[in-house]
Amino acid sequence: MKMREPATTGPLAGLRVLDLSRVLAGPWSTQILGDLGAEVIKIEQPVKGDDTRSWGPPYFDDGMSGEAQSAYYLACNRNKKSVTVDLSKPEGAALIRDLASQSDIVVENFKVGGLKKFGLDAEALRAQNQRLIYCSITGFGPTGPYADRGGYDFLIQGMGGLMSLTGPAVGQPGSEPTKVGVPVIDLFTGLYATISILAALRYRDQTGMGQTIDCALLDTSLAILANQGMNHLIGGVIPKPMGNGHPNVVPYRNFQVADAEVIITVGNDGQYANLCRMLDRTDLVADARYATNSARVENRVDLEEQLGSTLKSWKRNDLLKSMAEHGVPGGPINRVDQAFSDPHVQSRKVVEKHRNANGAEIPFTRFPALLSETPARIRSVPPRLGENTAEVLKERLHLNDEELQDLNARAVIQLFQVDALGSGPVIFLV
């Protein structure tokens, strides 16, 4: 495959991603690749598109575009082009194969074997393009007794053990298996997929060969158990929910003060000594039961009761100020609106506003890592359904207007254009 002139900037400029995924894990990965400069062509079903387009409210509607886009969809589909193709039709599958032959990366999250019947599986596409990196994201992977099952974040949080250690401690109000407030299994799988794709690109640079990547949600769920998983593997511990407590570090939790709750995250013995001096409780440093972290873990109940009693007389802002002065890590428990309005967050310019084709501003959280030489950028807002169908098929596959209209008439593709007044999309459907 010939080298292409980069159409974008960024460390991945010049790479083309064919995104056959939908919902979150796959789109999260391809959005990251897009943020880093890759060209991402998002394939969507005509009329319906990505499921998340309808996952609202809330929706963003500029009053002109003709399509209200869900906040969910907007969260994971910037820096992409939307092309509508019905891959279940032979002509549609042929279009996808032609696009794959020109692509560097394919990302898909169909059920195991779901694309084979269309000739769009890894074996078929890599046979025509040996440099292709084909990343498949499924619930359980293509092997094992659960391979044919569908996988969803909530389900995998339960099956993978995460829910068994999240939530209030046993016996406390509300103590039941609890999922995390955002779909962390999907998000982490998307991150692992991206890391794996970058590793495969490095290998391809060295050998000229692509490869197939198998990412399973259940595998991810076990991997991110981290210290809790290792506590079990090494020590035979079966972790249980501890509320906001930490299984291996004390004091490392929230405490009630006079007017709020405050998080204290003491990570070593020096910070613990600073905390006790700040609270005028040096007796808690001298006591051998609390002198080391291991001792504090063994005696956490007694220690936390004493710290909690002392902290109740403090006001939140006074405590946070004093903690900062004494080198004790911690902070407030913010709502989402408070987190976004935090002065430090604002100084870091985490939120960027970008305009759509009609000039309406849409806020996004930027790519979180700041690269000094090759920064990630938001170059385009999430596309409207099928917005780039004609553009991509003309440019990449050299189809002419007559051929496009014929494919549209047979519902293989769905053409999109802005009307003459620029006030909205015109969808040609037959």
From TrEMBL:
Signal peptide: none annotated. It comes from the Bacteria. Keywords: Transferase. It holds the Pfam family CoA_transf_3. Gene3D superfamilies: Crotonobetainyl-coa:carnitine coa-transferase, domain 1, formyl-coa transferase, domain 3. InterPro entries: CoA-transferase_III_domain, CoA-Trfase_fam_III, CoA-Trfase_III_dom3_sf, CoA-Trfase_III_dom_1_sf. This is Crotonobetainyl-CoA:carnitine CoA-transferase CaiB. It comes from Mesorhizobium escarrei.
